[in-house]
Amino acid sequence: MAATPPLLICEHCDTVYRRRELCCGEVARCLRCDAVLERYHRLSASGMLALVLTALVVFVQANIWPIVTLGFNGTLISTTLWGAIVMMWREHSQVVSLLAAGTLFFFPLCKMLLLGWVLLYARRGQRAPGFRLAMVALYRVGPWTMSEVFVLGAMVAIVKAHVYFDVILNPGIFAYAALTLLITIFAGIDIRRLWDMTSERAS
Ligand SMILES: [Zn+2]
Prior knowledge:
By secondary structure, the chain is an alpha+beta fold.
């Protein structure tokens, strides 16, 4: 395992601090701009990998299972996320369907696979092949995963649709809600730590 580097740089104002090990619940903040420098985490690389695998399983379920069933005059129509995306494409809302496919499917999938790949090696204190590229890609993809926005939007749409249709919630929406929880837990973890937890050369 690589030794923890003794210095810590605030990414907002570039102030340099001497690093010390944090205790449970402690958060290191910048004295100049109050930005969070580092948080204490109990999760090891194996713990994070377990979290990513759980998210991946829930993600598959969220995409396979129908999200909602609408009933109107005795006719029931249920749709999955992909059903809705294809429908939007056909109804000439190509831009919206591309955005939905990217932020709800491709970017989150990309993020989970990259994290899984990096963590698989980080468990042994090693850097995975392509570690640098993967970490840069993870940083860039981060803001483009919007499952939590989708769940909120879906909730609002479901409440509104209730006025006109019989709305039956399907397991897909619950899987998305669970995925949002997992993403929120993961958002609190600073994956930059992986730079310190791993070393370049396989030991
Ligand atoms: Zn600062």
